[in-house]
Amino acid sequence: MHDEALHGAGLGLRRELIPALVAGKPEAISFYEVAPENWMDMGGAKGKAFRALTERTPLVCHGLSLSLGGPTPLDEVFLRRLGSFLDLHGVPLYTEHLSYCSDDGHLYDLMPIPFTSEAVRYVAQRIRQTQDILGRHIAVENASFYTKSPVDEMSELEFVTAVLEEADCWLHLDVNNVYVNSVNHRYDAREFLRGVPADRVVYMHMAGHYQESDDLLVDTHGAAVIDPVWDLLDFTYREIGVHPTLLERDFNIPPLADLVIEVARIASLQQRYLPASTHDDVINTAARS
After folding, report:
1. Residue 259 contacts residue 247 (beta carbons within 8 Å)
2. In angstroms, rounded to a whole number, what is the distance separating the alpha carbons of residues 278 and 165?
3. Looking at the 3D structure of the chain, how many domains does it have?
4. Segment 216-237, tens digit of pLDDT
5. Which phi and psi (to 5°) does residue 224 adopt?
6. How far is CA 2 from the centre of its chain?
7. How many helical (H) and strand (E) elements, i.e. helices and strands, does the chain have?
8. Residues 40 and 82 sit within 8 Å (Cβ to Cβ)
9. 2 falls within a domain
10. Torsion of Cα atoms, 67 then 68 then 73 then 77, to 10°
11. CATH code of the domain containing 149
12. Residue 226 lies in a domain
């Protein structure tokens, strides 16, 4: 277990980056993030290299397959294996998407949950069950979505806030997702962020996206972060506070040196608004309990 609180700017740990990171971690990178599903059964040379990295640098886990909004029961066997993985690698924070990815089988995509009171109660109960099994608070990430449900009873912000309160969990705030949704669904991203329950935010994401048209953005994590999203991160730190923030890059991955430029830019923005949020210490304390 890492004694220091999670802080600073991080980078998503992709296998193709491991040789360069083993050779020497750039100073700008304060932590890594992985999808635990991709690493839980990793052995051999790659498993040893992964373990060597996590022994020196804090690790966050961001899940892909729990399907918090899905219709099938939570996979308790997976959750117990996950808990062992989190303990083994001293992971201070586990987050999942506020979406679903299963319907009697894996859908290989993240689908939006209808914004209804029934869905709030259903998802919150599954988050509480997850927290009980893991013995820790988790954070849920606001998701990008491309169509609105005809049964919606509330706004995206109202839904997210209601889930956080009902489940008593934390918020993993994806700044790029706020920007993408604000363009696709024509709302003011800054007004959305002003309404976010700041006391629930513990972690943030930054990423690039693909512009399909003037009014359609696709959250791909396959490009550099654009200036309007950087501006929105600056606004977020000013309004909500500084929290550990990760650069996501899952496709079209450039050399490590190029990614570090963006990670360093996150760290530079954080310096403008320090001291960091006290939630950084909350995460670390909760991980030990």
Report:
1. yes
2. 19
3. 1
4. 788 887 899 999 999 999 999 9
5. -70, 155
6. 20
7. 10, 12
8. yes
9. no
10. 70
11. 3.20.20.150
12. yes
